[in-house]
Structures are given as C-alpha cells and as structure tokens.
What does this fold into?
Amino acid sequence: MLSVVALVGCLLMASTPGAAATRATNNHHDVSAIADPNAAIMWNVIKDWQYKDDTWSPTTALSSWAGVTVVAGLFHFTPTSTNRWRNVGSGPVNLAMPSTFPLGSLNFHGLQLQGGVDLSTLPQSLERLILSSNSQLGGTLDLGHLSPNLAWLDVSGCSFTGEVPGLDALTSSLTYLDISDNGALTGHINWAALPRGLTTFNVNINQFIGEVDIASLPPALAVATFSSNNFTGALDLTKLPANAALYSFSINRFTGSLDFSSLPSGFEALIFNHNQFSGSLDLTQLPSPLTAVYLSWNQFSGSLDATKLPSGIQYFHLEYNQFSGSLDLRTLPAALLSIELGANQFTGPLYLSTLPSGLQTLDASNNSFSGPIDVTRLPATLWSLELYFNQLSGTLDTSTLPAAMSWLDFSYNQFTGGIDLSNVPPALQSLYLMHNHFSGRLDLNHLYPPGQQQIQIDARGNHFTGVINIYQNGYQWIGDISCNDNDFYGVVDFSNSQGSLVSVFNTKVSMVICPIDVDAECYSTWNTSVQVLNSTAPNVTVPFGRYIHKSSTTGRSVTINIANATTSVDDGKCKTWGGLQYGFPWGYIGESPAWLEHLTPCLPLLAAGRYYLYAKLSGTSVLVVVTGGDELAFHFVSS
It folds into this structure.
C-alpha cells in the first residue's frame, strides 16, 4: 500500500567538489590510448562538464568509474552523492550514444544541467532515465522516440515548455512518467493513448488544459497527480482504476459533484481542494486506508456526518465551502492531526473536550458555532486553536491550556468575564481576545517569564479596566500589545522592557512610556500636545545628559521634524516649535548637540528625579526620559 507522500520535493543543490575531484578538471586525456570503448562513449557525454571525478577517464574501464555499477551486463551511472557535477555549457546536453551501448540507467538528478536535451539518441537498452531538478534544462520535451525498453522517465523540476510531442505515442514499456513542476508544459492529453502498463503519471504544476477522462486512464495507474494545471469539466470517480491509490486533483477548475460511494478499496487520500466542485458529500463510506481529506476552497454545501470517518485519517480540511448544520466532533478518529473547518456555515455547539489526543491544529473560525466551550481538556499536543468570528459565549477558563499552545484566537465572539493569564503556556506567541465582552483586570505581568519569547496580544474592543503595568515585571521582551477601545487608565510604563508595538487608542490611558530600544512603533492616545507627567512645578532648564541612545542604528543620521507641538504647561516658552528640523547621528554623543537647547524650557523638574516628555510629531513620535537630572534617553519611533 502506498503512503501519502509529497511527489515533488525541494532538493539540496550541488556544492563544489573538493580538490580531489577538481584535479582532473583540466586533464587532457590521450584518446589514442583508449583501453575501454565503453568509457570513451560515456566520456563523450560528460567531457564538457566543469567538475569531473578523477576516476572518470576515456582510458579507464567504465566499470571502475565512481558512480558506475554493472548489473546483468548493463552499466548504471549515478554520480556519487558526496560530489555533484554540472554541465556548464549553454548548448544541449549531449546524450548521443550508439544504439547498442549497454546502458541500463542514467541518474543525472540535480546536476545543474543546462540547455535542451535530445532523448532520441539514447541506447536501446536504457531502462531508467532521471533528469529531474535541473532548473536550467528546458526547451521542447520530445517524447516521441524514447528507447523501447524505457520503463522509468523523470524530467520533473526542469523548465521544459510548450506542448509535448510524442505524449500520445509513448513506448509501451513505460510504467513511471513524471513531467511535473516544469511550469509551462501545456496542451491536451490523450488519456486513451497512455501506455496501459503505466502505474505512475505526474503532470502537476504545469498548464495542461481540457478534461480528465477517468474512464480512459490506464488500468494499472495507481498514482496520478493532476494538481496545479488548467483542467476543467467533471470527474466520474466511479470509473477510477481498481488499484488507484493516490490521485491529486487540486488547484484546477473542475466542476460538478463528487461521488465517494464507490472509491477503490485502496484509495488513500481525497485531494480536491481549490476547484469549483459543488453539491453535498457523503463521508460515511470512505475506504478504510484513507489518511487525508482535502476538500477546501470549493462550493460544497449541505450537512456532514463526521462520525464514521476512517480510523486512520490524519488531515480533515473542509475550509472555505458552504457546509451547514451542526458538526459533531466528539467521535473523531484518534489519528487526526489537523482539522480545518473555517469559513463555512456550521452551527450549534462546538465540542472540544473529547478531541483526538494527538490533534495539533483546529480551525473552526468564520462559522456560526454558538454556546459555551470547554478549553480545560484540550489535547496536550494542540498548538493552534482558531475560533474567531463565531457566536460562542460564556466564560473561559484558561488556567490549564496545553503546554504546546502557540496560537490562540477567541476574537469576535460573545465571551464574557475575566481572563486569567497567570498560567499561560510557555510556547504561547499569539493571543487574540479582541471584540468580545471580556472585563476586569488584564494582568500582563505573568506573561513574560525569563527566557520566554515575545507574545503578541490583541485585547481591543472589550471592557478591560485597571492599569496596564508592564514596567514592574522586570523582563525584557514583551512583544506587541493592542489594548484599544477598553477602559484602561493611568500610565502604561514599559520602559524597563523591549517591545515593538503598544497601542492604547480610545482608552483612558494618559501616557505611554516606551522602552529605550523600541525598534518599531509605540502608540499612545496620539493627541498632538506634549504630555508632562504629574507636573506642578514651573518649567526650568535641565542640564542635559551625556548620550542619545538607539543602539540598533548606531552611526545612522536621522532628521526629526518637530511640527506644532505644544506643552500642557502654558508659560509661553514652548507654545510652538514651528517645523524646526534637526539632524543628528544615533549612538553615543560626547556633547549634547546644540539643538537640544530648544527643548530645555519644556522639561519640568520633578521631585522624584524622573522627567517625561511625550510628543506626537510629524512622521515621528518622540518620548524623552530624563533620569537623575543628567542622563537623557530619546525614544524615536515611526508613526
């Protein structure tokens, strides 16, 4: 039984051979001293390659060449995996050999071959030819004059273009044909003309057109990939070959309905995503070996019964269709790893307490699931849970989330109550709570244990209240925090941390104190006046400090445009700064630049020894923090 594997992979390209291989690069062999005529024939094939092994010589027995084996009197040539060779010529690859040359196979996979290739000059005995993953090998792919004994041909991952001459007159001995991932092969395929003994036929990632006549496929065809072409029309799955195991029809323009009631008993995967299929589906009679269901991005509709899926299913993807009704997730197969239900019209309760124990991802977003959910008994392996845009309600107990949880999205529902962040999983990177009815204090100090990576938190559009006090946690990375449209108040101080975004628009927050090394954005309420914290003292001249700090951009000159900013203390000294521009280098400044004197009257002296100046400037936001009366740190971020 075939396993569900990727039929086209990305392979490591060649590296330059070592000195042992390159010593023969410029060798000039004396052809008059030929000892083995077979070696001379193969030498003619590889003589223009830039890199050749020392054992490759027209005067050395071909059987002693590196990469050559002899089986039943036939030579098989595969350059060794420890070295990679390449043809650096711009012309066609030279495969011209006498028809009687006893060659069994050539494996030139990933050798950076270039130009075109003539497949009509190969020996009659050739059984296997592999030219795959040579991205500069292209031109017309003429299959009309292949060796009569050829059983295996792989030219995938090359750059052949246009129609394929001879595709309707292939040698009858062919059992494996892979012309996938060339990108620009096109034309209609005569399905009835394919060799009757063909077991694998891969044409994916090209531009073939027309319908796929399943009834005319070779009866031996077990594996066929038609994905990523321009095929159209309906598919009659009742006429699949009896031993069909892995067929892929995704990313085409197929239409009509699908009948899964009589699939071959060994069928392993339903791969029909990204088409225009429609109608209802019966998933209660699927073959027992089935391991994957990919039906997403179509126009399927109606209700689904997921209680009788085959026990070995690992992937169940239905997103972006028009399925409706309730969906019972309580008796899913234990082997499931990924469930994608997003962007449908499912309704009713969402049962999460008895999910498969090894489940890794669940997306039920953009539906109409409703009612409360239980997230206290999620699978320990679950790392992504997306429930946004539903009608879920009730409170959430987040105290026992799986340790593997990295992505958690509860946004755009009707959840209420508070959120306990005191025991969040150490792997958590993204937490989305926006646009619910959450309330109470959002304690962010528990989110950043030592060594934990950044966390992105979006809590917009709720009823959270209290002070966002990040300064006290004492840890460095805080990630992105969006708290707009809540009832937070006071000062958001995270100057003791590092982060890339804090936004508190439309809240009662009076000020945001940004970290010294902020590298992206630090948003506050964006009023255009300078805000001075807790100031009752008159403006005085402050002795400016010794440096301007922005370590990540040391040595780069920046121009700050200060336009029409005013202070909250109106003494006439800094009513406006009418568009003054100042350029200065980031990094250590030995002496304070002269332009800083313009800011001097605007810094109030506070008894606590800490002074703040926050401004919304033209194109740039600036936070000035002065500590101890003689150190000045500027925080510049793009608006």
